[in-house]
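Sanity check

After download, print the first record. It should look like this:
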Amino acid sequence: MPGQRSRTGVWLVGARGSVATTVVAGTAALRAGLAGTAGCVTEQPDFPDAGLPALSDLVFGGHDVACTPLPKRAEQLVEAGVLPHGLPAGIQDDLAAADAEIRQAPLPDGATSQGDAVAAIRDDIVAFRERHGLARVVVVNVSSTEPVLASHPAHDSAAALRAALAAGEDVLPPSSLYALAAITAGCAHVDFTPSPGMRIPALRELAEEAGVPYAGNDGKTGETLLKATLGPMFAARGLRVRAWSGTNLLGGGDGETLADPAASASKEVSKQHVLGRTLGHPVEGEVHIDYVPALGDWKTAWDHVAFDGFLGVRMNLQFTWVGCDSALAAPLVIDLARLTARAHEREVSGPLGELGFFFKDPIGTDEHAVMAQYETLRAFASGLGDVGGDR
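Expected structure tokens:
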């Protein structure tokens, strides 16, 4: 029945990280009436009839290599200014329940092949679904950014990938191991990172065969959100942008990961895609990412935009964006889990380009203008709630 809500699992990859902890704590706070819905797109007036799973029906679990329990992580985020003082005490049961469903990440080692690791991940997800009697589970990757992936023949087709894994070859990055496990468990998949994930052709083929939906990549939370908004403005007003350069200062685990040039390269690629697509022409300038440990979970972006006006008058725009990364990302993760679960329930499969509004480098669409993406999202959500609606 349209509008009927079922218990839905959200399996977080990187489940004890700052974003995942904020997702669990934020959902619990919303359920208990301890917080407002600022930042939650699906709680806005355009989405009441989409038939999304209720916040009260979301059940959390996940994988991580870290061992710090979620209640402790929540206290650490309070100290960092991410969560409000006193919140963890009011949601202890929710934090403890989610923490009890976090499993140690079964990554390959000398004794465990990638095929075995995928099977172990799948088994954990399936057991979680069965243990809680869940209608479905959405696997969401909120773990650390991976380096740009080198191509491999096993990536080209499902048959080639199956053969490589059966032979014990290591051909997939961790993000794609989780994507494959989601597929084999019959789960929807969301990649909130710029990691390869489901972008490997063989995995997309397998997802189509399994009839599961997937969305990604790289959550659009700060500087790139502004680019996707301001780029169409310049284009619509006929103001030619000559150069757009940016510097990003990051602390926390994300900043530490991106201090590695190999990891930051994939992030910089996803951040720059939006400009050429929204402006309609190449633009000079680069994005730089610097790790500043003292910033903690906060990030600062400074951008300089050089553009030409009427009669060739040269002008510029400069802006500074200062935000809390986890507080910006967490509500979007909740939105994506709810929308993707509903799409799966409505038997929508394949890449969910309609969710491009949430991503820097969206799968399944070439549209990057944020308001055009929003209109597509709104129409898609309306169709999910309409029993006679089509994708």
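If your output differs, re-run the checksum step. Summary of this record's structure: The chain has a mean pLDDT of 92.
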